[in-house]
Design brief:
Elements lengths: L11 H22 L9 E5 L6 E4 L2 E5 L8 H13 L15 H9 L1
Parallel strand pairs: 1-3
Antiparallel strand pairs: 2-3
Length: 110
């Protein structure tokens, strides 16, 4: 997990907690779907002033660092699992055209 250098100590415990959730999410999706994670590694990057809440990329999720606030814990965990699931629904299962893009988010929200 990557975040601003000056926040590393402040959010050290939260990063460990989130890393645990990520591991559990990986295990869940692989077991539930019966398909292994498609990449060799997975990173989560917290970005300052990020215009989106979160976005999955190949082997990495980029998230707005404002989600690190304590009051955002449930929302942060939801977005982490949602974006992680896109590595199955979006990489293994892809839409034919943009008119069906809601299917990807529908599967990941399920």
């Amino acid at each position: 997990m990557f975040l601003r250098e000056e926040w590393v100590e402040k959010y050290k415990d939260l990063m460990q907690e989130l890393l645990g959730y990520t591991r559990l999410g990986m295990i869940f999706y692989q077991d539930f779907l019966g398909v292994p994670y498609p990449f060799e590694k997975y990173d989560t990057t917290f970005v300052a002033n990020y215009d989106e809440v979160a976005m999955e990329n190949a082997a990495c999720t980029t998230m707005c660092d404002s989600l690190l606030k304590t009051s955002q814990r449930m929302r942060l965990t939801y977005f982490m699992m949602h974006e992680l699931s896109h590595h199955w629904f979006g990489y293994y299962v892809s839409i034919k055209w943009w008119s069906h893009v809601l299917l990807n988010d529908g599967f990941t929200t399920y």
